[in-house]
């Protein structure tokens, strides 16, 4: 991703349309339901939040919803941040992002120099006005 003319164009368009300078991608996890229970010892791990059995997949796309990267195969019970930690993007960020480039994601992600997550609401604590506005703007992207 880093240094590529394509990512520079994506960053310009995201900045112009959504106001996020140097943002080159959006990341989110998704579940793919399985038709049957896996025939493995770890089958209970595939019991996801939304489906009886599923695979958890990390998808990274651009602002036009074109998939630029994905990692599939984690059990459905795997948290999005755990799956993200298994990606080459997380393991070798300098190979994928220029020093000022980053991706955005929901509050499941940990903040990093190349990851800007939504603000997480703490129990019994409302988000501040600025944090709410940021999250709203991020969700539009």
UniProtKB/TrEMBL annotation:
The keyword Transcription is annotated on this UniProt entry: no
Domain called DDE Tnp4: residue spans: 28-140
Entry keyword annotation includes Nuclease: yes
Lineage, opening ranks: Eukaryota, Sar, Stramenopiles, Ochrophyta, Bacillariophyta
Listed cofactors: a divalent metal cation
GO molecular function term, any single one: endonuclease activity
Protein name: DDE superfamily endonuclease
Keywords for this protein: Endonuclease, Hydrolase, Metal-binding, Nuclease
Top-level taxon in the UniProt lineage: Eukaryota
InterPro entries registered for this protein in UniProt: HARBI1_dom
């Amino acid at each position: 991703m880093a240094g590529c003319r394509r990512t520079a164009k994506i960053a310009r368009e995201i900045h112009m349309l959504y106001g996020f300078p140097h943002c080159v991608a959006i990341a989110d996890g998704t579940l793919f339901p399985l038709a049957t229970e896996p025939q493995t010892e770890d089958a209970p791990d595939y019991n996801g939040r939304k489906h009886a059995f599923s695979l958890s997949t990390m998808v990274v796309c651009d602002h036009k919803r074109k998939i630029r990267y994905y990692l599939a195969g984690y059990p459905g019970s795997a948290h999005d941040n755990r799956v993200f930690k298994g990606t080459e993007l997380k393991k070798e960020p300098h190979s994928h992002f220029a020093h000022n480039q980053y991706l955005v994601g929901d509050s499941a992600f940990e903040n990093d120099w190349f990851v800007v997550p939504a603000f997480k609401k703490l129990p019994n604590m409302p988000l501040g006005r600025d944090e709410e506005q940021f999250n709203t703007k991020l969700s539009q992207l």
